[in-house]
Amino acid sequence: MSFAEEFVAGLRTRHIAPKWFYDAEGSRLFERICLLPEYYPTRTELALLDRHAPEFAARIGTGAEIVEFGAGASVKVRLLLDALESPRRFVPIDISGDYLAEAAATLRADYPGLAVEPLAGDFTRDLVLPLAAGRRIGFFPGSSIGNFEPEAAQALLARFRQWLGGGALLIGVDLFKEPAELHAAYNDAQGVTAAFNLNLLARANRELGADIDLGGWAHAAFYHPPLRRIEMHLVSRRRQVLQVGGERFEFDEGDSLHTENSYKYGVEGFRALARRAGFEPGPVWTDAARRFSLHWLEPANPA
Ligand code: AVJ
User: Fold this and answer.
1) Ligand 1 center to residue 54 CA distance, Å?
2) What's the gap in Å between 144 CA and the centre of ligand 1?
3) CB atoms near residue 295 (< 10 Å)
């Protein structure tokens, strides 16, 4: 489904998938989130990638192909690429095509020997990957896996396992921690996360000719302990009617649009999920404060 179709359907169900945050503007806002003092995941994961790069390189081996799911600006993969011995090809996959092309051009300039073959598309749908060039290793950093309900996360991992055809997956997973610390990460003082959330409505104005007053909506993000997830919503500040795609949608004051879930895991809980998806979990790397984890997953029955 297109953004137009899913946005209209989402106004009906009051639930829109977070992948629609990432138009070029949303991708730029997300890059700003990654630099926020409150948003610990990016900083923590980068430090882990940096510290353990030689170990990852040894596991990945020479002449490998890296496939990154949801590559964005392809910043993190550089730490891997820098440590690898003659990587053959890098295939960044992202839903934001414009953004992806920009990032690929920069990468090509910085890694002259590397074949960079971006693939614009939705990795939760049927996407056709090129034939592997060398041992294929999946890279799924940032805890984007947290955007999926645990069952969908398991199905997605199982699909990655098939795409990797015997190769391993290096995946970043955000961990449980104090609710206050989680809350701060999604309610930053500068309001960048709020702007990122509201960009969904701005995007509808830009792309769908909607005329939504952004001032009529508030950012809400909170940790929900029973489901172990951060939820993000857009909350209507007043009674209002949205007109999109020839349809009318009424919102009362306090009505919400659910825009994102971000599940948090324990190390063992995530390894159990990976096993259910057909992986044999290998080593796990975490920071001293156990804020974030990187997992090495091998297929349980390699092809
Ligand atoms: C890209 C899904 C990992 O859940 O932390 C950041 C997205 N949303 N701030 C996350 C996000 C609000 C992010 N992921």
Assistant:
1) 27
2) 7
3) 24
